[in-house]
Structure formats: structure tokens, C-alpha cells
Specification:
The structure holds 2 protein chains of 2 kinds. By secondary structure, chain A is of the alpha/beta class. Chain A has 12 helices and 15 strands. The relative contact order of chain A is 0.13. In chain B, strand 1, helix 5 and strand 2 form a beta-alpha-beta unit. Chain B is elongated, with a radius of gyration of 19 Å. A 5-stranded parallel β-sheet of chain B has the order 2-1-3-4-5, with helices on both faces. The chains are: A alpha/beta, B alpha/beta.
């Protein structure tokens, strides 16, 4: 496993000759099939890490946010501490909220001296992920409440969690910390919703820009908390998609944020990536200006909207994590299509490639295809 | 008078395309004061939305501009509302749109809805995570010419053939053209799903729907 670590460090550092690491995210596949009772017999009763080992591939996210969709929810060293005058109330319903269509809802309410805000999330079919049915920020007055929360919020380091994670994985794969989405995407995907964010930026630009500044400050607090730890990579969970974040919005709000923060990240001796899992053809020409070291999950055609050639050209000097469209793991895609794509991807991006699935292995994937890809990778590595 | 009105109409289109909502509201009221029928003003604003759509298609505008254009038009419609005598949507036909059961993704669907509305369709947006039963029910209730279905998760793609089959069982398959979309939908999959069309992008989807309507009319 030290070999995996060395290979990944070579990708970060831009060295060649050590081979490619294959890191598909299988947690979603594992959890949905476990919940549905369709996990292959050999994997029943196994821990997720054991399934990774059986497939001969390595896990990725060791220190994630700990949420439902986090690849490994157990090791959470960077924790959020809310201010002393803030109460967080959480409840779960079973069809109580929307009586017409009973589902499980997770309702989180912040009660502060500045007022209250509420978010409602819904679990997916097997409860493995959450989607917003209602966002925290619905109108201007909610922004004031959120600003109060952000002002008071601190980030603390959970040493015990960190040490346990480092003991379990630190020698095998470089330490990576999952951060929230960059400020604009934080609002678009997480706190306000895409359409409302666009409208609020148009109608209330000054108030929104103050909020974006405050969100940016959160990252400096997080960086401060990460100082002195043996972290190699920071991962911004942006979920970038040009239909949400258009090139003009990207230039105005996202690019300057990255330019400011990446100089600090590099000063601290770390690398950083951002998760771009939507259509990104119009944004890719801007990516090098961000200062990011790599991109995660850029999805080529036919699932995404870019060719490998376009990705390679626009990401010169950067590394790619992932690159195989998830749909190629579904049984209706010809195996030859998958094989040809993987071979082309390896030749196009090596040595600046950590191979994986864009975005993750689907729940209805033919899981043996992971082994099939692994074999192609082994052959490629043997040929180096 | 016609020439003067044309200058006004051009100002309406221009205000809409540049999202100048204050100017738009003023010009709209000016037009009313000059005796232009509210329905005619809505038509002109729709033309402005058409220009916004073209700019989106050519890559000059993005979804955020579509959203803002929609807001601009909404504000102007509020001013016009007291003067409107008839419903103004749905000249091209009716479309039922939904994200299929089990899937909660709505960005692509919402863009499609916006573009279909500005193209002149009356859109019945059923929302996300919509069951096959509810979709077929909506077809029977609204008699749409077009049905747009979206799914992002590969596990939900199987809903497309289920819906098609249900349309057949209920005897309404031939009454409606079905188009599907979503990032994980490939041409290869669409061929197997028994639908009438597949589009990689929302704008391509709208163009296919418009072609279907035009074919029917010729």
C-alpha cells in the first residue's frame, strides 16, 4: 500500500514513472445494494474497506464531512462548533410534514438571537443521501440570521479522530480533507438553492456580496485549523456545473475566491482540488486561472459535455482525478466502450491522473467492471 | 401610430433582453396608456424572451440570464395583470414535464421548463420524483402534445420504459410524443427505452419539440 501513496504523491508533484492508482468511489453502490438486499453474496457482512480490498482498489476520502454521502463518514477531524447563543434543533419526520406524499424528512432549525432559519432535507430511496426540499435562506431576513451564525462559527480539530484515521489510512494514501463548496456554490447548492441565489444576486447584490465575504472567511478559519497537520490535499466539494455557475458568475465570484485562497493553501504546503461533476465545457478554459492543482470528477462525453482532448488542453499543468463516466459501469454500455475509454484516458492524462469514476460507481453498476478496469490499469502500469 | 408603437415595442424587447426591469415596467405602462392591448404587449415581451433564448443558444447568455429574464418578465406581467383579458400561454401546445420517480434532480428539468415556456408551450410541471401513474394521469388530464421526462441517476432510467409501457396500457401512447433527457441518458439507452426523442441539452430538447409541432401542422 506504500506503493499507492508514492504513486499518488507523484501525481501531486507532477513526477512520472510510478504508475496509476485506481480509486473508484463504491460507497454509494455498496450502501444502496445493502439496503435493497442486492449486495452480491461474497460482499454480504463485509465492511466497506474489505470490499475495496477485495476489488483491489483504494478508498479515497478519509477525512470527509461525515455526512450521509461522504465516502468515509467515520474520520472527521475538522468539526464545526456553533456559537454559544445558537441552538440547533433537528428532527426527523415520517410523512408528517408533507401529508400528501409521506417520506422521511430531516428538519434542521437554527434558533439564534437574530432569528431562526430552517432547512428541510429528504432522504433518497434507500436513505443513503440527502436532498434539499427547503433551503435555509429563503429571503433577506434569513441572510441576517445566517450571518450571525457564520460570525459565531468556529472550526476545531478533533485530534483523536484524526489520529485514528491517520493510523488506519495515513500510510496507505495521502491525507485529504474535504472542505465545503466555495462560497457561491455553498449558496447555490447548499444554503439557498441555485435559482434563488441568482435572483438574490440580481435583486440584492450588496447584501449577497457581504454574505459571500463572510462565507469566504469561514475557509480562512478552516485553513487556520488545518495548520501544522500532515494534510496533503484539500478538496472543495463544489459540484461545479456551468448551468448553475455561468462563466460570468464564475469570473466574478469563484475565480477571485480561488485566487485568494490558493496562495494561502500553497503557502501552507498543501494541494487543492475542486469537484466539477456537471457540464463544464464553458468553465474549463478558466480553470487554470484558479490556481487549483487538480480537478475531481470532470465527466467526459457521453455523460458530460467535454472530450478528453478538451480536458487535457484546458487542464495543462493540473491533474485529473476520475475521468470514467459512471454510465460506462452500467450493464447496457458495451464493455468495449469502457475498455477503449479507459485506455485512452490513461494515455491522455498519465502521469497526472488518479483514475476513478465520474462521479461514483452507480448503484446498478455491474460491479465486476471495477475489476475489469483494474486489470487494464495493472497492464498499463506493467508497461511503464 | 404603428411606427411609434414599433419604437415602443423595440424598447420593451431591449429592456427585457438587458434585464432593465424598471425601464420595462415604465414602457409597458406607456404602451397601455397609448391604447396598446395588454395581450399584444405580452406577445412583444415573449419576442424579447425569444431573443434571450437565442442568446442562450449561441452561448452569449447562460442559465442565470434565463432566470433573470424570467424574473424581469414576471415583474412586468404584474404591472400588466389588471389589463389582461385572456390567458396568454400555450400557443404552441401543451407539454407535461417531470423528473421521474426516485430522482430529485431538477436543474435540467427547470431549464427545459423555462425554455419550453418562452418558446410558447403551456407547461405542466409535475416536479421531481413523479410516479409513472401520476405522469400518465397528467397526460389523460391535460392532453399534451409533448411529454418531457428527466432522470440523472442511472438507477432511475428504468422509469422511462415503464412510463412508455403504461402510456400504451392506458391507450394514450399515440397521443403524445415522449422526449427524455438527463446527463446519464445516452443515445444508446434512449434507443432501447421506446421513446420518440432524446436530447443532450435542454435547448436541443426544445428544438425537437418545436419540430414535432411544426411537422404536425404541415
Amino acid at each position: 500500500m506504500m506503493e499507492t501513496r508514492d504513486r499518488m504523491m507523484a501525481v501531486y508533484e507532477g513526477r512520472r514513472g510510478l504508475g496509476v492508482v485506481f480509486q473508484p468511489r463504491i460507497k454509494h453502490w455498496y450502501e444502496v445494494n445493502m439496503a435493497a438486499g442486492t449486495l452480491p453474496n461474497k460482499y454480504r457482512g463485509m465492511y466497506l474497506d474489505e470490499v475495496y480490498q477485495d476489488l483491489g482498489v483504494t478508498p479515497r476520502e478519509v477525512w470527509g464531512p461525515g455526512g450521509a454521502s461522504s465516502e468515509f463518514a467515520g474520520y472527521l477531524p475538522l468539526q464545526t462548533k456553533e456559537g454559544g447563543d445558537i441552538e440547533v434543533w433537528v428532527k426527523q419526520t415520517h410523512g408528517l410534514f408533507y401529508e400528501a406524499e409521506p417520506k422521511d424528512y430531516l428538519i434542521t432549525e437554527y434558533r439564534t438571537p437574530a432569528g431562526s432559519i430552517r432547512q428541510i432535507q429528504r432522504r433518497t430511496e434507500y436513505g443513503t443521501s440527502l436532498y434539499n426540499a427547503e433551503y435555509y435562506l429563503k429571503e433577506l431576513k434569513d441572510i441576517e440570521v445566517y450571518k450571525h451564525i457564520l460570525h459565531e462559527r468556529r472550526y476545531v480539530w478533533n485530534r483523536l479522530r484524526y489520529e485514528w484515521g491517520a493510523k488506519r489510512y495515513g500510510n496507505q494514501i495521502p491525507l485529504r480533507i474535504q472542505l465545503p463548496r466555495s462560497p457561491l456554490l455553498w449558496l447555490m447548492v447548499g444554503a439557498m438553492g441555485c435559482q434563488r441565489t441568482v435572483i438574490m444576486l440580481w435583486r440584492h447584490q450588496r447584501e449577497m456580496e457581504r454574505l459571500l465575504d463572510l462565507l469566504e472567511e469561514q475557509f480562512y478559519k478552516m485553513l487556520e485549523t488545518c495548520k501544522g497537520k500532515s494534510i496533503v490535499e484539500l478538496s472543495f466539494g463544489d459540484n461545479m456545473h456551468q448551468d448553475m455557475c455561468s462563466p460570468p458568475l464564475f469570473k466574478k465570484y469563484v475565480l477571485p475566491f480561488y485566487q485568494r485562497i490558493m496562495s494561502k493553501v500553497h503557502e501552507m504546503g498543501m494541494y487543492a482540488t475542486s469537484h466539477w461533476d456537471g457540464f463544464v465545457k464553458q468553465l474549463l478554459p478558466l480553470v487554470r486561472e484558479t490556481g487549483l492543482d487538480g480537478l475531481e470528477c470532470v465527466t467526459p462525453l457521453p455523460q458530460g459535455d467535454v472530450t478528453l482532448k478538451e480536458m487535457k488542453e484546458e487542464m495543462t499543468g493540473m491533474f485529473l482525478r476520475d475521468g470514467i463516466p459512471a454510465v460506462f459501469f452500467c450493464p447496457w454500455t458495451h464493455l468495449k466502450t469502457l475498455e477503449d475509454h479507459v485506455k485512452k484516458l490513461l494515455h491522455t492524462f498519465y502521469p497526472r491522473l488518479i483514475l476513478g469514476v465520474s462521479d461514483l460507481v452507480p448503484a446498478n453498476a455491474a460491479i465486476e467492471r471495477v475489476g475489469f478496469v483494474n486489470k487494464i490499469v495493472e497492464e498499463f502500469n506493467a508497461s511503464l | 401610430m404603428m411606427k411609434n408603437n414599433e419604437a415602443l415595442f423595440e424598447a420593451i424587447r431591449e429592456a427585457l433582453v438587458t434585464f432593465d426591469v424598471d425601464a420595462l415596467k415604465k414602457i409597458v405602462l406607456q404602451a397601455i396608456q397609448r391604447g396598446v392591448k395588454a395581450e399584444r404587449i405580452v406577445d412583444v415581451m415573449s419576442e424579447g424572451m425569444g431573443i434571450v433564448g437565442q442568446k442562450y443558444e449561441s452561448g452569449e447568455y447562460f442559465v442565470s440570464e434565463l432566470i433573470i429574464a424570467g424574473e424581469t418578465m414576471k415583474d412586468a406581467l404584474e404591472v400588466l395583470e389588471p389589463y389582461l383579458e385572456e390567458a396568454t400561454d400555450g400557443k404552441l401546445g401543451t407539454a407535461v414535464v417531470a423528473t421521474v420517480a426516485g430522482d430529485l434532480h431538477n436543474i435540467g428539468k427547470n431549464i427545459f421548463v423555462t425554455l419550453m415556456t418562452t418558446a410558447g408551450f403551456k407547461v405542466i410541471d409535475l416536479g421531481v420524483d413523479v410516479s409513472a401513474d401520476r405522469i400518465v394521469e397528467a397526460v389523460k388530464e391535460h392532453h399534451p402534445e409533448v411529454m418531457g421526462l428527466s432522470a440523472l441517476l442511472t438507477t432511475n432510467l428504468e422509469q422511462f420504459p415503464i412510463i412508455v409501457e403504461k402510456l400504451k396500457t392506458e391507450g394514450v401512447r399515440d397521443a403524445v410524443k415522449v422526449i427524455i433527457g438527463g446527463a446519464t441518458v445516452t443515445e444508446e439507452y434512449a434507443r432501447q427505452a421506446g421513446v420518440d426523442g432524446y436530447a443532450k441539452t435542454a435547448i436541443a430538447g426544445v428544438n425537437i419539440c418545436k419540430d414535432w409541432i411544426n411537422e404536425d401542422q404541415t
